[in-house]
Design brief:
The complex is a heterodimer of chains A (445) and B (217).
Chain A: H1 3-13, H2 15-49, E1 55-59, H3 63-70, E2 81-82, H4 83-90, E3 95-107, E4 110-115, H5 117-122, E5 127-130, E6 138-141, H6 143-149, E7 156-157, E8 160-161, E9 175-181, E10 191-195, H7 196-205, H8 216-219, H9 222-231, H10 237-248, H11 250-254, E11 267-268, E12 270-275, H12 280-290, E13 294-297, H13 299-352, H14 357-397, H15 409-434, H16 438-444
Parallel strand pairs in A: 4-10, 6-9
Antiparallel strand pairs in A: 1-12, 1-13, 2-11, 3-4, 3-8, 3-12, 5-9, 6-10, 7-9
Chain B: E1 7-16, E2 19-29, E3 34-38, H1 45-52, E4 60-65, E5 68-69, H2 75-85, E6 86-89, H3 101-111, H4 118-127, H5 143-155, E7 161-165, H6 173-189, E8 193-198, E9 209-212
Parallel strand pairs in B: 3-8, 3-9, 6-7, 7-8
Antiparallel strand pairs in B: 1-2, 1-4, 4-5
The chains are: A alpha+beta (445), B alpha/beta (217).
Chain lengths: 445, 217
């Protein structure tokens, strides 16, 4: 018979009360754990994805939208910008690296990003298999996108118009996967990269595909496909007009080589910029915003703005969760204190059998701690489990990779804090047990 | 210490303020002997038992239990002395409801700070006809069974002194006989002195000696 077993037996004597206490404690703990895990991973994911991007150039509009669309690929872009104008800024002496992005299509919910190889390098994305794109309509898939959509080097897929699933397919112009990237744990994993030219080929001109490598077989049916393509197309009126115009000049267009298009007509969605020196942050964004039709947004600033907004909600939820924990602690206190009245004779009898005051204090404290410990264990398990479930759901619907199987440093503090609360809840009943008047209790009992 | 009496009390007095509850000039119990402390309700019998067990401290006088002066022991030391050398049986037994019969008895062994011996417990259960009830909860026992468990618990650590408070008051004549015989034989079996505190006249003539108590004047 150890004290632990005695404490445990006492708890089992009133299973309902004990279970309610454990569940209350578990709920409070689970909520806090979930918030800690989600908060830590959210800010970590956000800052990791924007780590090496100092500035985003894009169309005028909401800077948050621009950052969300161009850095996190989590929103629709505010619009397109002339490539020439973006490049004027990219060539500025204060700019170290500049990467153009052209968005518009997706495959099975994974965005197809027209860009340069430098974009993959930004996230340290190395090829797992294959090579980077060389010719038109060649694509490289991020690891998660490749896995989920079943893309391997050599597979072909048709991009869907729009950034969500269910858009109109560019059936006539399938992409060919030529490489798959290693996992990086960043947004890159969920993207399909291709050249800017491939995106332009599908969008700006909607011209028949260049008779490039691997495309010759499809080319035989090109005209037929194009008709279908046009019929179901949701492009705006002026684009339709363009189609008609292009059909007229079908033969003519064929002879055009893509690079011969003057750069001034080209549009991109955004330009990611890395400063040559941090000093550029003082002047460049302001200059961009003041002149011309472009907008400059600094991801770091927009992230902190988003996190601040999210943080207010998180703090509210956290406060609520702590209230649950305090409620649980009060309930543990009430249960122990209540049982103390019923058990004062038992405690006095323990003294008669040779237990010291300190041992009575200890056994009551242990009962409180056992209740807390079971509650805390349940809470951590439930919190991590819920995070894992939520993470799976977020990954499949929002493209945010989160897991429940991590331990953030704040959890250790939480653990200690919760045990502290458990001790406090048990202290008053324990002290009462310590002060039991044995003779009177036994005489009355 | 082995030659010292089980109980040796001199000029013992207990009072609440100016009201004296109990007053005993001298009381003595030799080792292995049994004695009934008999007196009417309100004469301070239970107070006497609590004083002897070290649960309360006297207002005046000296209590020596097995040669140990109780006033010399403090706090936890007193608790340990009680646990190790004294076995107590109360009228209402006070078995711990959360534990099984066996656990109740093993707990007493542990609290007495003697080595835990299952053999000793089994032996005791045999002699008290408790074999088979080891895993019952106290709430499932009859009055007689519960008393036998309480006796087993008081004897499991082989104490030198066993004290029982009103062990017969709730029993009919036949069971009173049985209970007294059981207490006496059990105490004898471990060589312990036995003190029975009671107002029950039926106890007269059943133990080695009788000590009369009357309300203090």
């Amino acid at each position: 018979m150890t004290w632990l077993r005695l404490a445990f037996a006492n708890l089992r004597l009133s299973p309902l009360t004990s279970a309610v206490n454990v569940i209350l404690m578990g709920l409070g703990t689970a909520s806090i754990v979930l918030l800690l895990l989600a908060g830590a991973q959210l800010s970590e994911t956000l800052s990791r994805d924007a780590r090496s991007i100092d500035l985003v150039l894009g169309a005028k509009g909401s800077p948050v939208q621009l950052v969300l669309s161009a850095v996190y690929h989590a929103d629709v872009p505010p619009g397109n910008i002339p490539k020439a104008e973006a490049e004027r800024w990219a060539n500025d002496t204060r700019v170290g690296v500049s990467i153009p992005l052209s968005l518009g299509d997706s495959y099975r919910g994974f965005r197809i990003v027209g860009t340069t190889e430098a974009y993959a390098e930004l996230y340290g994305g190395a090829l797992a298999t294959g090579r980077f794109w060389g010719g038109a309509m060649e694509a490289v898939a991020g690891s998660a996108a490749a896995e989920a959509a079943g893309l391997v080097a050599g597979s072909q897929f048709a991009g869907a118009h729009g950034l969500m699933e269910g858009g109109h397919n560019h059936q006539s112009r399938p992409y060919r996967v030529v490489g798959v990237l290693e996992p990086t744990g960043t947004v890159l994993d969920r993207l399909i990269l291709t050249s800017l030219e491939s995106v332009w080929a599908l969008h700006g001109e909607d011209e028949p595909p260049a008779r490039a490598s691997g495309m010759d077989r499809e080319a035989e049916h090109e005209h037929e496909h194009d008709q279908e393509h046009e019929a179901g197309h949701t492009h705006s009126e002026d684009q339709k007009a363009e189609h008609v115009h292009e059909d007229d000049h079908h033969q003519h267009e064929h002879n055009h080589a893509e690079p011969s298009h003057p750069d001034t007509e080209r549009e991109i969605t955004a330009m990611l910029i890395r400063y040559r020196s941090p000093l550029a942050a003082m002047t460049l964004p302001r200059e961009v915003n003041a002149s011309g039709s472009l907008q400059a947004a600094a991801p770091a600033m927009e992230i902190s703005r988003i996190l601040q907004l999210v943080g207010v909600g998180m703090d509210g939820l956290k406060a609520f969760s702590w209230m649950l924990v305090v409620t649980a602690a009060l309930s543990v206190f009430a249960a122990l204190y209540g049982s103390l009245r019923a058990r004062r004779v038992d405690l006095a009898m323990l003294r008669c059998l040779g237990a010291t005051r300190w041992e009575l204090l200890w056994v009551l404290l242990m009962e409180g701690l056992l209740l807390s410990a079971f509650g805390i264990a349940l809470g951590f398990l439930a919190g991590h489990g819920a995070m894992e479930l939520l993470g799976g759901w977020l990954e499949s619907t929002r493209g945010v990779a989160m897991t429940g199987w991590i331990w953030v440093p704040a959890e250790t503090l939480l653990l200690l804090g919760l045990f502290g609360i458990g001790v406090i809840a048990a202290t008053i009943p324990a002290v009462q047990a310590y002060r039991t008047d044995v003779a009177r209790t036994i005489a009355e009992g | 210490m082995s030659s010292s009496p089980a109980i040796d009390v001199t000029d013992l007095r207990f009072s609440y303020g100016s009201h004296t509850v109990m007053d005993i000039a001298h009381c003595h119990l030799a080792r292995g002997e049994s004695m009934a402390v008999i007196g009417p309700s309100g004469c301070g019998k239970t107070t006497f038992l609590h004083l002897l067990a070290g649960l309360i401290r006297p207002s005046a006088g000296v209590i020596q239990i097995l040669g140990q002066e109780l006033s010399a022991l403090r706090g936890s030391g007193l608790d340990r002395f009680r646990g190790q050398h004294i076995g107590l049986v109360f009228q209402r037994f006070h078995l711990l409801p959360a534990l099984t019969v066996l656990e109740n008895v093993l707990l007493a062994q542990r609290l007495a700070r003697v080595p835990v011996e299952r053999g000793r417990v089994d032996e005791l259960f045999q002699s008290l006809s408790l074999a088979g009830f080891e895993h019952h909860k106290p709430s499932m026992l009859s009055q007689g069974q519960a008393q036998r468990v309480a006796i087993a618990r008081a004897l499991v650590h082989s104490p030198e002194l066993v004290m029982a408070d009103e062990p017969t008051s709730a029993l009919d004549d036949r069971h009173t006989d049985q209970a007294l015989a059981l207490l006496r034989e059990s105490a004898q079996a471990v060589g312990a002195a036995l003190l029975v505190v009671t107002h029950d006249e039926r106890v007269r003539g059943r133990l080695d000696r009788e000590f009369e108590m009357s309300a203090p004047t």
